[in-house]
Amino acid sequence: MTPITPTRTLAVLLTLLVAFGPVCTDLYLASLPDMARDLKTDTTMVQMTLSAFVIGFAVMQLGYGPLSDRFGRRRVIMGGVVLYVVASLFCVVAPTIETLIAGRFVQALGACCGPVVSRAVVRDIFPREQAAKVMSYMASAMALAPLVAPTIGGWFHIWFGWRSNFLLLALFGVILLVMVWRLLGETNQQPDPTALDLGRMLENYGALLRDRTFIGYVLTVTMIFGGVFIYLSSASFVLIDTLGVPPQYFGLGFSMASVGYIIGGFIAARVTHRVGIERMVGIGVTGCTIAGSLMAGLAWAGFPQPGLAGVASVMVPVMLFFSFGALVLPNATAGAIAPFPHMAGTASAGVGFTQMAGGAAIGWVAGLVFDGSARPMATAMAVLGAAAMAVFFSLVRREARP
Q1: In angstroms, rounded to a whole number, what is the distance separating the alpha carbons of residues 304 and 310?
Q2: Domain-embedded: residue 1
Q3: pTM to 2 decimals?
Q4: Among 111, 99, 94, residue whose Cα is nearest residue 25
């Protein structure tokens, strides 16, 4: 096989594949309150459409990693996208909340091929520091998805109802399928014929679990992503129901978080190669802790009330949390995967599984403790930022010291 040359077109395609997750979670966020009313269910069950997606996204990553190590990146991506399109169409016609939750789970089984395999593609063709830089640029560009998706979804919800959002998701999958078929060559130059052997898979995952630095990076990613997911699953209820933001304008308020992530991703891409992955992650987790603590303090002081000032008391700290989170997620992911070039797909799957499974569990708890205010969301983000900082400095930085 001829090695793949990195190009801007390839970078755009990889960014869109990584964006599968935020597009599928963010596009329909403005519809959650009306979905609960239309399907005659409650907040917890509607939030399960997010958690079920994340659970499916997490579980199947463990399969896509070894599959791409064995059969190559291109074929595995195409198969996953086809499954995603079929499940998206099922969600369009789902008659009950239970069937919609099931459809979202299957949708995730297909969609998770995007980030898992695209991260492995980056590892296939870039060295460690360059891979971190590329992932940071991808993360910054990917943040356009949550910047644009909720606004588009909110307007389509107003015009055509909440089911139209899932039709848009199906169309997104079809477009990606055509792009992969036309633009993505095979980057796995040394397929591993034993990658799917149960003994080899257990051996590979065992090697990852015994690596202290890998575990430290993975737990750091999981904690910060947990804070991001808390916001994703709670934002529509906090902004629309608590702070009185109309659904069609929900995306404008929500987009502040995406702007923060774009800024942080751009900074990470420009600076990481000079200061190093470990230092960037350390700055990021410290900033997330400070931003989360600020938001929790404002929430418990009663600042989040209907009106511009109330929205700002939530969204300004969220924007800061996302900015610093963008220093953490791509860099910690690159740091976790880089030492394992012979099983990049498996390492990527391990990172993705833990990140998404942790996010799903945290999102489920958030649904249970939501009390109609911003306090549970803000408190959880503060705690998760502090936990990420403790894990990173006790595992990764300590291990990196001479």
Answers
A1: 4
A2: no
A3: 0.70
A4: 111
Give me the phi and psi of 322, to 5 degrees please. Answer: -70, -35
What's the domain count of the chain? 1
CATH number, position 222: 1.20.1250.20
Burial 345-359 (b: 16+ CB within 10 A, else e): bbbbbbbbbbbbbbb
Domain membership flag for residue 80: yes
Mind giving me the DSSP string for 328-375? HHHHHHHHHHTT-GGGHHHHHHHHHHHHHHHHHHHHHHHHHH--SSSH
Query: By residue range, what is the domain housing residue 234?
Result: 8-184+192-400
Beta-carbon neighbour count of residue 372 at 10 Å?
11
Q: Is residue 125 part of a domain?
A: yes
What's the CA gap between 143 and 223, in Å, rounded?
A: 19
Please state, as a whole number, how many other Cβ atoms lie within 10 Å of the Cβ of residue 127: 10
Structural domain includes residue 171: yes
Convert the pLDDT of each residue in 239-272 to its tens digit.
887 787 777 677 777 678 878 888 888 888 778 7
